[in-house]
User: Fold this.
Amino acid sequence: MAIEQLELQLDGFSGPLDLLLDLARRQKVDLRQISMQALCDQYLEYMANLRGRRIEIAAEYLVMAAWLTYLKSKLLLPVSDKDTEDDAEMMALYLAHRLERLDAMRQSVKRLFARSLLHQDRFVRGQPEPMVIHDRATYDVTLLELVRAYGRVQLKQNYSTYEVKRPKIYTMDIAMENLRQVLGQVVKWRSLQDLLPSILADAEPDMQRSVVAGTFAATLELVRQGQIELRQAKAFAPIEVRVVRRDIDV
Assistant:
């Protein structure tokens, strides 16, 4: 961000401080008309606004203000006639020397800031890197052994297990228990389709087939045991079943 230079607003002069100093050196301005108190007040206000930024600029203006104060003091303080000419010439030479040094400082500052700045235009490497030791194993194997080892690695990577889910089935024992409860002591002929459990309606297709097969197998087993009887009027006709009652003439 650009920094504004110190602009003075004084009785008898209005402009930058370095111009006032140059005019005073060449005796182009009457320093007796310049208020040093007003100059110092404006300089201190400028310094307060410049705080924390460009300290080299503040130093330049401090040198200028000090020399202006010195020049005015020489004008106001009484001096002997014999020393006046020598002091004025010496003061002019000394002031010229200081201005040359000030200009050299300005040029040096410009050259320094024109270079690459650390952490802005160039960066350091950071912490030194520790010594790193790389271990590299060397194996003395044949091509066949290498192929076999590669095959074992690939086999492990591609190995997967297959878990067979055990299907839910309607066993013959469950079907026999269900038939006994449904038939009870009823001796009338009933359709086997009506004796299928209620879960058949909402069951999945595989479970439906299991219920039908389990019920039919249970029916045949009960017939073999002599507990029920089966009949079918013709092929593909509904199968009917009833309980065998020994004390009833069927």
